[in-house]
Amino acid sequence: MARARYRLKVRAGSRVERRRFSDRDAALDALEARAGSLAEGANAGLIDLRARQFEPVAQVVARLELAGPARLRAGLDVRGDGSVEGYTGTLRRQVIEQRPGESPYDALRRAVAEPGGERSL
Fold first, then answer.
1. pTM
2. Its domain of life (predicted)?
């Protein structure tokens, strides 16, 4: 059996799920499928504190993190309004800019596949 080289961690609310994969594409497929289902169910409401308000788009309801060889650190944030945003890195997350016609999932795959795209910043 091939050794699991890629780790996927899904944090949704207070729940944490962990899975391992030997293939990067399989890990990305699982990440995309799980993020899609979480985005469909995202329905955060406005958080109204006395001094500040947080709209659903400003709330991260789920974070999916992919780690692997060559210091791969990337993932997706699912926002309270169901939108999805890709990032690279861990402590210093860098948002992955989407190109015209590109989904957040495609942008993540591109960033992970590019030379140097697997390294955390």
1. 0.85
2. Bacteria
